[in-house]
Amino acid sequence: MTSMVTLIDYEHAAPRVRAVYDDIMATRKTNHVNNFWRALAHDPETLEATWTRMKRLLGSGSEGTLDPLTKELIYLAVSISNGCEYCVRSHAAAAQRKGLTEAQYTEMLAVVGLANETNRLAVGYQVPVDDSLK
Amino acid sequence: MTSMVTLIDYEHAAPRVRAVYDDIMATRKTNHVNNFWRALAHDPETLEATWTRMKRLLGSGSEGTLDPLTKELIYLAVSISNGCEYCVRSHAAAAQRKGLTEAQYTEMLAVVGLANETNRLAVGYQVPVDDSLK
Amino acid sequence: MTSMVTLIDYEHAAPRVRAVYDDIMATRKTNHVNNFWRALAHDPETLEATWTRMKRLLGSGSEGTLDPLTKELIYLAVSISNGCEYCVRSHAAAAQRKGLTEAQYTEMLAVVGLANETNRLAVGYQVPVDDSLK
Amino acid sequence: MTSMVTLIDYEHAAPRVRAVYDDIMATRKTNHVNNFWRALAHDPETLEATWTRMKRLLGSGSEGTLDPLTKELIYLAVSISNGCEYCVRSHAAAAQRKGLTEAQYTEMLAVVGLANETNRLAVGYQVPVDDSLK
Amino acid sequence: MTSMVTLIDYEHAAPRVRAVYDDIMATRKTNHVNNFWRALAHDPETLEATWTRMKRLLGSGSEGTLDPLTKELIYLAVSISNGCEYCVRSHAAAAQRKGLTEAQYTEMLAVVGLANETNRLAVGYQVPVDDSLK
Amino acid sequence: MTSMVTLIDYEHAAPRVRAVYDDIMATRKTNHVNNFWRALAHDPETLEATWTRMKRLLGSGSEGTLDPLTKELIYLAVSISNGCEYCVRSHAAAAQRKGLTEAQYTEMLAVVGLANETNRLAVGYQVPVDDSLK
C-alpha cells in the first residue's frame, strides 16, 4: 500500500500536476495544497477533472443557482452519511471559510440525522409512492 | 408482511393518530396525508416524534439559521445517497412547493455526485487528515 | 442481463442444485422454493454455502445463544438499512412465521431509525471515543 | 472544525443541557456523561429529543415488546453495517452492561455478515419479489 | 418531480446536448441513447463531463492498464453494493457486449457478497490494522 | 468491548482454530496470521467458513473464470465504497502480492469514483429502466 498512498510534494510533481497545484493555491489564496490533492496526483487525469469540477461547483465565485455555502452543506451532508472523516473535516473547514456558523452546522446535522432515520422508516414500512407524487 | 405495511386511513385511526393527521393537514393546508405518515401510524409514538421533528426542522415557517429550501436540499442529498425512492419523490415535491427550480435541483445533484465520488477517492488513497484540519 | 437473472426451476436444475432445493423444502415444510434460491442456483457452490449458513444461523431449530426470532430481527435491521426490498419482504415473512408481532416489528423499526440517525450525529460531530470505551 | 466538535463539560453547560446530563447520570447510575452527549450539547433541542428517544427505546427499564438487550443488538447491527466506530464501541459497552455475552456478540456478527452478503446477491441477481410475498 | 425527471429527446435537445448524443451513438454504433443520458441532459455541463469520463474510463477502446471488461466488473460491483438497479441493469448489458459470460458474472457476485460480509466482520470485531500493513 | 475484540494468538487457540491458522500460513507461505483472522477466531465456525470461501474465491491458485487479481480489484472496489479501512489496506497488500501496479490501482479508483457518482445521478433523476434493458 505504501507507494500508492504517498503524498506528492510540489517539488516532485510532474508539470501537469504542478499546474493544478498552482491553480489550487492561486484560487484559494494559500500556499498549502491539501493532502487530498497530493494523493490524487498519482492519477493526473483524475486530479485535473476532479479539481475542475470542484472549482466549478463549490468554488467561492462559482456560478450557478445555489450559493457556495449551500453547496458546501450539501457536500457535508453526503460525506457525513457516507462516514468519510477526511471529507467531513476538510469541507467543514471550507464551509467555515465561506461563513458557516456553528448554529448552521448543527442545524444541518439535525436534518441529516432526520433524513437518515426517515429513509429507513420508509423502507421498513415499504411505503408505496403516493399517486400524487408519480 | 401484509398487515405491517397497510396504510391507516383517517376513519380507522386512533384519536392520537388523528391528532397528528389533523396537524399535518392544517400545517400543509391540504386534506391529503401522505402514505409515509399513514404507514408510520402503526407506531403512534414514533409518528408523533417524527412529525414534530419534521415540522420543526423542515416546516415552511420553521425557525433556525438555514432557510427551509436549503434544508430540503440537504434532506434530498442524503436521500439520494441512500437510494430511497420514496424520500426522493416526496421531498422533491415538498421542495418544489418551497420554490425549488429545476436548475437548483440539477445543481444539487451534481454536488451530490461529486461528493459521492470524492468520498471514495479519499478512502481509496487513504488520505491522512491534514495537520491544519485537526 | 436476461440470461443471468432467470430463475431456475426444479425440473431444469442440476442434481447438485436439486439437493439444495430438496433440503430447503424439507426444512421449511413447503413445496415452494423462493426466488432468491432459484436465482442463486446459477452458482451452485455459492447456493450451497449460503443455504448452509442461512439454515445454521437463522433456521428454526438453529443452535446458538440467540433465539431465531431475534436473529431475524437483526437480519431485517441490516436489510432495511441497506434498502434491500427483496430481503425485507422475504425475511419479514420468515419472521412472522417465527411469531413476530406487528408491535415487535414497529419497535425494531424505531430502533433502526434511531441508530441510523445517531450514527450520523456521531460522525458529524466527529465524536472521539471515550477513554472508558477503549 | 475545532469549535464545532468541542465537548461541552457540565460546568460550562447551559441549564437546559445540564438537565439532560443530570437525567443521563441518574438513569445510568454514573457520574460520567459520554462524549456523544457532550458533543450533541451544541444543539440542545436535538440533545433533548435524542436522549428522550434513546431512553425510551433502549433504556434498561424501557417498555415495549422487545427486551432491551435485543434492541441493543439491533442497534449494533445497524451501526456495524454503517461502519460507525463510535457507535459500535459505545453500544457494545451498553449491551455488555445489559448482559451481552461474547458468544451472543459473535453470533449477531455472523448474522450481520450474512445479511450484508445476501442483500447484495439479491440485488446482483435482480431477484423479483415472489408473488407469495406481495 | 415531473418536470425534473423527464427524458429529453434528440428533437428537443439543445445543440450542446445533441453533440453528446451524437458522440454516444457514434461511439456505441447504435441509434439509441439510454435513458440515463436523456435524463442527465437537464444539466448539459454534467452530461458532457460524465460522458467524457465514462468514455475514457469504460469505453471499448479505452486506454489504461485495466481491460474494459475488468472495469465494467468493478463498476458493477460498486453499483450492486449501492443497490442501484438502473446501474446494474445498464452496465450488465454493457459488460455482456464486451464479452461477459454468465460464469464470470456469478463469480463477481460471489466476491461482492464476500467483501460485503467481511467488511462488516472487520468493523464488528474492530480489527486493528496490522503493523505490517501500515 | 475489550474481551470481544482481543486477538487470539496461536498459542492460545483451540485446535480447530489452529487448523485454520496452519492452513492460512501454509497457503500464504508465511508465518504471520493477519489480525482479521485472529479476531474472527472468537467464532470458529465463521472463521472456517469465511477462510474456506476467501481461499476458494480469492486464492492465488483459485479456480474460476476470473483471474485472482481481477477479483482482488472487485473486492477492493466494494471495500472502498463501504469505507472499510482495514479491508482496503489488507487487500491492497494482497493485490500487490498478486502483481497489482500503482497505475492499475489508480485506474480502479477512478472507476469506483465514477460509479459512486453516476449511481446517485441515476437515483436523483429517477431514471426509468430502458425497455431494451428489461
TrEMBL record, chains A, B, C, D, E, F:
Carboxymuconolactone decarboxylase-like domain location is: 48-121
Among the GO molecular function terms of this UniProt record, one is:
peroxiredoxin activity
Under what name is this protein listed? Carboxymuconolactone decarboxylase family protein
**Species name:** Rhodovibrio salinarum
Source taxonomy = Bacteria, Pseudomonadati, Pseudomonadota, Alphaproteobacteria, Rhodospirillales
